[in-house]
Amino acid sequence: xxxxxxxxxxxxxxxxxxxxxxxxxxxxxxxxxxxxxxxxxxxxxxxxxxxxxxxxxxxxxxxxxxxxxxxxxxxxxxxxxxxxxxxxxxxxxxxxxxxxxxxxxxxxxxxxxxxxxxxxxxxxxxxxxxxxxxxxxxxxxxxxxxxxxxxx
Length: 152
Known about the structure:
By secondary structure, the chain is of the alpha+beta class. The protein is 55% helix and 13% strand.
């Protein structure tokens, strides 16, 4: 099977199986200004003005950079893309259960003042939380950074 066909099926499956989070991602995409968008291994990546990342079904949102780069060493935005692609894969695996099992707990872990303090004062890494650790493992397994991106 060609890569194009494989990524088409990934996108199609994500829309069907991950419909709740894909719908939320589509709404967010429509509400955001016209940022650089790219098709990336079955996902649609939008680079926004925020400093955090978000993955909602078919859609991944990461901070915008001047030039997308495959050089991970000096590019934290590309490292974040890998991480968010791990969440994309989680959505493919657990489908409609993504929001209650991954999305909501991950958002609370990332944004709650209580958990920010725990990470800060107890020296906990952000990726120690189960949702983030799993996304990291998946991103390393599928290594999407090697894929060519197509701007849309």
